[in-house]
Structure formats: C-alpha cells, structure tokens
Amino acid sequence: MARQNLKHPVIMPIVPKASQYGIDPALVKQRAAELPGMCSLWLAEIFPELPPVIYPGASDALDRLYEVAKEELRKVDMSFIKPGQSVNILASHHGFTLLGGHPYAILIKATRDIIQEKTGCTNIRLRAGVGMRFRETEEYIKRYELDKHFGPGKTKGVAPIDEGIAIETEIGNLYGLKDVYDADWIVHCHHTDVREVHFHRQIDKAVKPFGMSYARIETRSTYHQNLGPRAANFTARALFESKFVQSKFAFASFLNVGPHGVIGVDADNDLYAVNDRATFVGCQLYGKIMTLFGEIDQCIAVLDFPCPVPYVFSAGVIYANFAGANTDLYDMESPLPPYTWYTEAFYKKSGSPILPEIPPLNPAIRMCVHNYAWTGYPSAFFSDHIPTVVVGQEQADLFDVEPMNIEYMSHAVTAKTTESAMNFAYKTTGTDKVIIFDGAMGGLNCSDSLADLLIEKAPEVSDRVDKILLPKWLKQRGVDISILR
Q1: What is the pLDDT of residue 208?
Q2: CA–CA gap between residue 18 and residue 347 (Å, rounded)
C-alpha cells in the first residue's frame, strides 16, 4: 500500500466505564476522535513487520484467544499440583485496562480451567492486586464476571494495605500480602505490555508484580518513594527468588501483547524464560512505537480513556511514557542518569530538576486536553509541568476532592466542551498536531497533520530499531536475540 494511503477513518475509542474513580460515563458527551480533522493509523500498516494478532479481530476473536490459551497451558507441567490442594491465580489491575480488559479476563479464566482439567484441583482462587486504587480490581472482577467463573468466595481484590506476611529474602525481610500466599501453589498471570517502562526500564518486567501487585505497601513503595525508578527492581527479584515464594510458585501464564493487539499466550514453569521473551517483545515491538513518538516535534495530547491520567493509551503506549519520549527509556548506557523524570522526588519545589542531568518532560507536548481520565494516581505533577485543560466542571470537581489530586486543578483550567477545549488548545499552542490517548485498538487516533509526520518517520525508525537500537537494548539486558528469533 502506498504510504500516502495509510490514513483511515478513526478507530472507535475504548468506551467510558462506570467506576468510583471516574465521572459518570453519561457525562462524556464527545470523544476527541469524533472532532473534525482526525484520522487513524493502523500500526500493522506503518510497521508491516509487526506479527499478526488474535485480538482485535473477527467477532470470534475472544473465543479463539480462549482456545489458544488453553492449548498453551496444556503444555505446562502441573503434575505436582494435587486434587486436594489449593491454587491462587495472581493477577494485576493493569491487565484489565489492556485492549478493553476482556483478553486478560479470558486468560485468567483459561488458566483456571486448565488447572482444574489437568490436576483435578477444584480449590482454585483468584487474587487480583492493585496499586493506589484499592477497590479497582473488585470492579473488574464483577465487570468481567470472574466471580461467576471461579464460584462463590473464590475471588478477591487485594490491596497493598491488606494484612502482610514477612518473607525472608537474601536482603532481609520484605513483605508480601497474606491473601496472595494463602494457598499451596501460586500461578503468576500477567502480560507483556510494557506499561511503566519508565520505572522498570524493561529489566525483569515479568517479575515486577512480586514487588508491586503482590506486595505490602512498605515493600512496593520502593518504586515510588524509597529507591525510585530502576533501582527498586531488585526487590521483586529478591521476593520471587526467596525460598518461601519458590516453594509455592507453580508456573506463569502471560498474555503476549504488542502495541497493536494480542499476539499469543506464553505459559511456562520458568519465569525467567518468559521474562526474556517479554523483554524481546517490549524492546522490539513497543520500542518502535516509543522511538516513533520521540520523533514528534510538537503536539496537543488528548487524554480520553477510562484510566488514571498517566495510564491512558495511544498505540499501546501510556501517556506517562510519551511524557518521557524525548529520552531513550530503553538505553541503559545513555549519558543520562539511571533514572527518568517520572517522580517528583527528582524535582525541587520550584519545579526544576534537582540535578541538571535530569531531562525535562517531553517538550513536544505543548498542551494537554483532559477530555476523560480517572483519579486514583497522583497527577498534579503532570498538570503542573504541562499546560492542561480539563473538560467539564464535574470532572474538575472530582479531581478537586480526590485526596491524591487536590492540587491538579490548581495548575489547570476548565472548558465546557471537548470542542471548546480543543479550539483553545489550537489557538494557544499554534499547532494542529494532535495525538489522542483513547485506547483505539490496533492503531492510534490523531490529527491528519500528525499522521503525515508519523507516516514519514516510521520506515527510518523501524530500520534504526532493528539494526541499531534493538541489538543494543537486548545486549544491555543479557538477552540472546538469536535464541528468541
């Protein structure tokens, strides 16, 4: 296909969802993708080398994913799980925001079903962890009917403030959640979405939930308050490699996702083998989107997705990572320090970095139009550093009363409608380039002018990642690219 024909009508955004962390979906009157001058790019067209996806796809795509998941799970050794024992399937809240949430729920259901099929075990429970939105996974469990699939009393959302359990590790006691480890066996059910690459830097990404979703707040806060980005990664590995966790770990089942959709399921008794494969996916596939986003010279970023501010999606990449796209978040040998801007700990009260080496937020983002996004994560840092327009007084009021965001609106202004917010942004910034973080599956919604830029830059970016950046990134992480390919 000629590259000038790569622009398509917009992909429908992820629909608003009812949640205590967001406004009533009925208040979302207009989506940014519906405005004049917007189009869609299909990722599989601008990067033709991307592998085929199972989902999104035909009307039976979720059914096919369920069958693929079962086929892969049947290959895993479960012979040590006995019929009379108990199994906890461990999940994380972020998986339910991927591609509408249904694919992750399908993997969880398939994991439960094959454990029962292969072992005869019936005491199979779900423990779904969260971060700062303590009731979030309770909403997901009901939304995707996981409570019905597992049966009465078999599902539970667990939060970092729940009762903990001390776990002896090689660096001393760290703290997990008691409900996570109250079974004979645990199964780590996760995904290859890179998500917070600004934190884990694609190092032990597959292991990270052991120090986050499954951990008490004293331990998981090493990522946020104590050690900061990258340095905290060793806590997850220390927990996973402890005698206690190893005595319970059965296997991992991962939703294998790229920025354009679900490409398969990866199930294995060896989590570090899964981790190597997840590193390859994260660097090769997501690395191309991240690098392409770094080519954007100026734009208006629109948040339009049912998630907290930093976690809204465009082309499989979250807004928080786009805010760092002016740096190479994968390069461990860059002249920048081994941390990123993404923590207020690296900024003074004046708003300037503590050290001159700390990069600023992506200067290409000239303004943020907050059309629809949730509370539940401290986000005043974003509105303080990026001019922000919030659509609707109800949404502004919600942020004003949310404990973690009482200063968000101190740095933002309010517009009555999506259209008026965008007109204000166009006039103020002088740019008509728009990128929309609305979770459009299989592509990204943006303005015609930005689409032209991305189409032009994509071939060179693809070549640079494959020939220069990817070999460097994988070598830095000790991943043998020849084995994975």
Answers
A1: 93
A2: 35
Q: How confident is the model at residue 370 (pLDDT cuts 50, 70, 90)?
A: very high
Task: Please check whether residue 135 is in contact with residue 20, taking contact to mean a CB–CB distance below 8 angstroms.
Answer: yes
- Looking at the chain, the number of H-run helices and the number of E-run strands are 18, 18
Torsion angle, alpha carbons of 69, 70, 72, 74, to 10: 160
Q: How far is CA 17 from CA 28, 304, 373, in A?
A: 10, 12, 10
Q: Which residue has the tokens 């969802």?
A: 17
- The two tokens of residue 407 are 């200063």
DSSP 398: H
Distance CA 376, CA 309 (A): 9
Task: Note the pTM of the prediction, 2 decimals.
Answer: 0.94
In angstroms, the first-to-last Cα distance of the chain is 27
Q: What is the CATH number of domain 61-258?
A: 3.40.50.11440
Q: What is the pLDDT of residue 233?
A: 81
Of 230 and 48, the structure prediction assigns the larger pLDDT to 48
Q: How far apart are CA 291 and CA 330, in angstroms?
A: 10
Q: Where are the domains of the chain?
A: 3-50+296-466, 61-258
Per-residue model confidence as pLDDT tens digits over 121-142: 999 999 999 988 999 999 999 9
- Find all residues with CB under 8 Å of 145, minimum gap 6, and list them: none
The alpha-helical segments, DSSP class H, found in 206-303 are: 217-220, 233-240, 243-248, 271-281, 287-293
Query: pLDDT tens digit string along 79-106?
Result: 999 999 999 999 999 999 999 999 999 9
DSSP string, 281-348: HIIIIIHHHHHHHTT--SEEEEEEEEEEGGG-EETTEEHHHHTTTTS-TT-TTSSS-SS-S-SGGGB-
